[in-house]
Design brief:
The structure holds two protein chains of two kinds.
Chain A lengths: L1 H41 L2 E2 L7 E2 L3 H7 L2 H32 L5 H9 L6 H11 L6 H8 L16 H26 L3 H9 L4 H29 L2 H7 L11 H11 L3 H25 L6 H4 L1
Antiparallel strand pairs in A: 1-2
Chain B lengths: L6 H27 L18 H9 L2 H30 L6 H12 L7 H10 L6 H5 L6 H12 L3 H9 L4 H9 L4 H17 L2 H6 L8 H12 L5 H19 L1 H14 L1
């Protein structure tokens, strides 16, 4: 009888725990799992609102191969991904500086971090204004110091527009990278550095042999989160350039939005989304390999 | 260890701080100048501080309505996060059948950026009949995986004996969460509140695709719309910017310690 009650208690408790999990699970199933599946299905169908779905095979994907805008957006997205390490490198230098024993380092840390929690739409407007052709600070500074004779129309230029968006993105993400790397730095035991110093290793060598290897999981983490954040920074592109001039700053996310919600080609957009998704998974996998294959261990504990 | 000179470090950090702050200053300066913002050369310090553009924003757009929408949606998201994440986090501190599957599912979901699922998410919300509503705006953000793990880590630190004592006293699991665990997890709660607020307050793409009526627009959307029909011909845009940034910035500065700790503990734990 007692055993029966215990079993009953066990199942009751398990049931209760599942109830506790239910709301979160429901939200994730509804907005993460189901969309991914639906998206995949949609990309193999001809479908638009108010029309019955018909099988499409690989038609949408074949269309993509011939779609110049898609290739441009894919290329731009790759450039944005490639820019994440630049931000991380700058952040690593800042993290090392902030980690040294100097006065006011909390103030420096706060100032550098402040841009991260800001509304991206507002950040985009701030940077539009900085890059402004007539009275933007950058043009003004460059003209006042006679570096250039005529102002550069940064955001209307095919060459400059994408780098400008990337600069704004790095500016916003810098503090975030720095905090992740700083946490990693602080988790490295002091004794290692001291022992190496006694053995006669100079600062550069200690950095190469101790700091960098032990920091690898943090760098991986910063890269994955930063990469996800950058390639999905729809707001930044939408507000700063709208994807223009031409398609110079079109990235996959903005292209998906335009296909789906401005041209109501949901099925084509779904195909682009699948490609986008594969790209994200592949990049993360690649970064994990690069970090030594077990960097994910930091995440799964 | 302390023999190297400090000034190069200060110099480099001051430079970095300068780069981080100057864009703010440039926009703030423009917003309070109340004059022709296209005068060349631009003034470095405003000749006269004038709130004209702020008044202009208040009267030219339904700022109060945008603010209300943003506040309500953020409040729903924050409440959802604290409630659901605490429950899920508590469940994950126990062992039960299927737990590893759930954890795997969570970690996989973390790799799915919301922006990559907008089309089905829009269609699903349509089927639920929640398009163009406060609940629909908040629902996808009502639980976040990082924040669940923040709660789990905090609950794991509560001594087992305390929970057992509460059980012996006859408290139900529900009451254990709310009366024993939560009061001991203040910093996890703070992290949840702050992160949920910032993510919801700043969200742009989701409101952009799912709101139809002007009445349901949130602040980021209002800001982007303002830009698209006024262009940047007026300083009011920059006043609007400052008005929108102020609450988030204030919250961050008040709670920055919790914020950074939460972000790193969440990010490091999962």
């Amino acid at each position: 009888m007692a055993a029966f009650w215990r079993v009953r208690h066990r199942t009751r408790q398990a049931l209760l725990l599942w109830c506790f999990l239910a709301p979160s699970l429901a939200i994730f199933l509804l907005y993460r799992v189901l969309p991914v599946v639906w998206n995949l299905v949609l990309s193999f169908q001809y479908w638009s609102p108010l029309k019955a779905a018909e099988p499409a095979g690989f038609d949408h994907y074949e269309d993509l191969l011939a779609d110049d805008v898609f290739w441009q957006a894919l290329w731009n997205t790759l450039i944005v991904i490639a820019s994440a390490p630049v931000g991380i490198l700058i952040a690593l230098m800042l993290a090392l500086l902030v980690n040294s024993e100097i006065r006011g380092r909390d103030v420096y840390r706060t100032v550098i971090f402040t841009s991260y929690p800001l509304m991206t739409v507002a950040v985009a407007i701030i940077w539009r204004w900085m890059f402004d052709e007539r009275v933007g600070l950058l043009n003004y500074a460059a003209r006042a110091s006679h570096l250039i004779d005529s102002p550069i129309p940064f955001l209307n230029s095919f060459i400059w527009a994408l780098p400008c968006v990337i600069v704004a993105n790095i500016w916003q993400m810098l503090g975030f990278y720095m905090i992740i790397l700083l946490t990693g730095l602080q988790n490295i035991p002091h004794e290692l550095h001291e022992a190496a110093a006694i053995d006669g290793a100079n600062a550069l060598r200690r950095f190469q042999r101790i700091t960098l290897p032990l920091l690898r999981p943090s760098i991986f983490l910063a890269f994955v989160i930063g990469m996800l954040n950058s390639v999905t920074s729809f707001d930044l592109v939408y507000v700063m350039t709208g994807g223009g001039p031409g398609r110079a700053t079109e990235i996959l996310v903005t292209y998906i939005y335009k296909l789906g919600f401005m041209q109501t080609k949901f099925d084509d957009a779904a195909a682009v989304t699948v490609v986008f998704f594969v790209l994200l998974v592949a990049t993360t996998w690649g970064a994990n390999q690069f970090a030594g294959g077990d960097a994910g261990a930091a995440e799964t504990e | 260890m302390h023999r190297y000179p400090r000034w190069p470090i200060h110099l480099a950090l001051l430079l970095a701080g300068f780069v981080m702050l100057v864009p703010f200053y440039w926009v703030l300066k423009t917003s309070v100048s109340g004059e022709n913002i296209y005068a060349y050369p631009p003034s470095i310090v405003p000749a006269r501080i004038h709130p004209f553009f702020y008044v202009d924003v208040w009267y030219s757009i339904p700022f109060a309505r945008y603010l209300l929408n943003s506040v309500v949606v953020s409040a729903i998201a924050v409440a959802g996060n604290v409630l659901f994440n605490a429950m899920a986090g508590y469940a994950l501190t126990h062992g039960f059948r299927g737990k590893s599957t759930v954890v795997l599912l969570f970690l996989t979901c973390m790799m799915v950026p919301f922006q990559a699922t907008i089309i089905p998410a829009y269609l699903i919300t349509g089927r639920l009949g929640l398009l163009d509503s406060w609940l629909g705006l908040a629902l996808p953000q009502c639980s976040t995986i990082i924040c669940i793990f923040v709660f789990k880590a905090s609950f794991d630190a509560v001594p087992r004996s305390l929970i057992d004592a509460a059980r012996i006293d006859g408290l139900s699991e529900w009451r254990i969460v709310w009366h024993v665990m939560m009061p001991l997890s203040k910093s996890a709660i703070a992290t949840n509140v702050i992160l949920a607020f910032i993510w919801s307050w700043n969200n742009f793409l989701w409101p952009l695709i799912m709101t139809r009526s002007a009445d349901m627009q949130t602040l980021p959307l209002g800001l982007a719309r303002f830009l698209s029909y006024q262009e940047d011909t007026t300083g009011a845009l920059y006043a609007f910017c400052i008005m929108v940034l102020a609450p988030g910035l204030l919250l961050f500065l008040l709670a920055q310690k919790e914020f950074m700790r939460g972000l790193t503990s969440g990010a490091v734990k999962g």
